[in-house]
Write a structure and sequence with these properties.
This protein has 313 residues and is of the alpha/beta class. The chain is 29% helix and 27% strand. A hairpin with a 2-residue loop joins strand 9 and strand 10. The protein is globular.
C-alpha cells in the first residue's frame, strides 16, 4: 500500500487573496476559509474556519508594507501550529524587508535575518519565495527554502517579443549575476550600469559598461521601488543610441511617484509579476502571473517530488 500524503489546504492573508485565489485555482483546490476579527484599536486575530489537523497548510502572503502583512502571516502560522497542522509552508511571493540583508553601515538591523527568525519561531516548517533580493537570505533560515526564479515565467514572454539585436542590462553592479544568467539563456550581450548614490533612492551619476547603440535593451532587476534608477537608465540608453529599452522587474513595489516616472520615461514597457498588487493600471506595465509557477511547486512539494526542474536559470 503506497503512503498517501493527506490533502493540503491553501489559505491567504487579506492583501494577498487576489494572488492566492489564482494559485488555488491553478493548484485545483478551493481557497480555505480564514476570518480576521479586528479589535477597535486595529489589533486583529485570524481564525481558521475549518480543521487543519494533521495536514499541510500553505499560507500565501507577500510581506510588503505595511507590516500588518507580516504580522498576519506570523499569527496565521502560530494559529496553524496550535491547530496541529502537520506542515506549515509560508508561501511568500515577495519577501519584504529583504533589502536589510547585511550591515551596510554601523548600528543598523539585519531585518531579513530577523524576519526569518520570526517566521521560524512562529512555526513555519518551510518557506517558498521568489527572486529574493539576495540569494544568501536562504541561509538565514534553518528550515528548507524553495527559492523560485521568475525568469521561468519572464523568458517565454521575452522570446515572444522576437527582438533583434537583444542586449540584457543590469541597472547596477549587484544585479550583474542575474543579467548574465538571462543573457546566457537568450544568447545575448550584457551591459551593466554603474551608479553612484547620494543617499538611498537618490542617484548622483550613472555610466554604462558596454555598448547599447542599435540594440534592443532589456533591463532585469528583482524589484522596482521608486523607479528612479530604471527611468534614468532607460533615458541614458536611448541617449546612447539604444533602439528600445524595456525592464523586467519581479516585484512591483512602485512607491511614491513611480507610476509617473515610468510613464514619462523612455521605457517601452515594464514587465512585472503579480507578487505585489498593482495600485493602478498603466499602459506601460505588463503583468505576468506567477500563480501557475507557485501552484506547480506547491503540488510538487505536497507530493514529495523534486522541484529542480523549475530552475532553468
Amino acid at each position: 500500500m503506497s503512503h498517501h500524503e493527506p490533502e493540503a489546504k491553501i489559505f491567504a492573508c487579506t492583501q494577498s487573496t487576489y494572488l492566492a485565489e489564482k494559485i488555488a485555482a491553478s493548484y485545483g483546490a478551493q481557497l480555505g476559509k480564514v476570518t480576521f476579527s479586528e479589535y477597535s484599536d486595529g489589533e486583529f486575530q485570524p481564525s481558521f474556519e475549518e480543521s487543519i489537523r494533521g495536514i499541510r497548510v500553505f499560507l500565501v502572503c507577500s510581506t510588503f508594507p505595511s507590516s500588518d502583512n507580516l504580522m498576519e502571516l506570523l499569527l496565521m502560522i502560530d494559529a496553524a501550529k496550535r491547530a496541529s497542522a502537520r506542515h506549515i509552508t509560508a508561501v511568500i511571493p515577495y519577501f519584504g524587508w529583504a533589502r536589510q540583508d547585511r550591515k551596510d553601515k554601523p548600528r543598523v538591523p539585519i531585518g531579513a535575518k530577523l524576519v526569518a527568525k520570526l517566521l521560524e519561531t512562529a512555526g513555519a516548517t518551510r518557506i517558498m519565495t521568489m527572486d529574493l533580493h539576495a540569494d544568501q537570505i536562504q541561509g538565514f533560515f534553518e528550515k528548507p527554502v524553495d527559492h523560485l526564479f521568475a525568469s521561468t515565467i519572464f523568458l517565454p514572454y521575452v522570446r515572444s517579443l522576437n527582438l533583434e539585436n537583444l542586449t540584457i542590462a543590469s541597472p547596477d553592479m549587484g544585479g550583474s549575476k542575474r543579467a548574465y544568467a538571462y543573457s546566457k539563456f537568450l544568447e545575448s550581450d550584457v551591459v551593466i550600469c554603474y551608479k553612484q548614490r547620494k543617499a538611498a533612492n537618490i542617484i548622483e551619476s550613472m555610466e554604462l559598461i558596454g555598448e547599447v547603440k542599435g540594440r534592443n535593451v532589456i533591463l532585469v532587476d528583482d524589484m522596482i521601488d521608486t523607479g528612479g534608477t530604471l527611468a534614468k537608465a532607460a533615458d541614458l540608453m536611448i541617449e546612447k543610441g539604444a533602439l528600445s529599452v524595456r525592464a523586467i522587474c519581479t516585484h512591483a513595489i512602485l512607491s511614491g511617484s513611480a507610476y509617473e516616472k515610468i510613464e514619462q520615461s523612455q521605457l517601452t514597457e515594464l514587465i512585472v509579476t503579480d507578487s505585489i498588487p498593482l495600485k493602478k493600471q498603466s499602459p506601460k506595465i505588463k503583468v505576468v502571473s506567477c500563480a501557475d509557477l507557485f501552484a506547480d511547486v506547491m503540488k510538487m512539494v505536497q507530493e514529495n517530488k523534486s522541484i529542480s526542474s523549475k530552475f532553468v536559470i
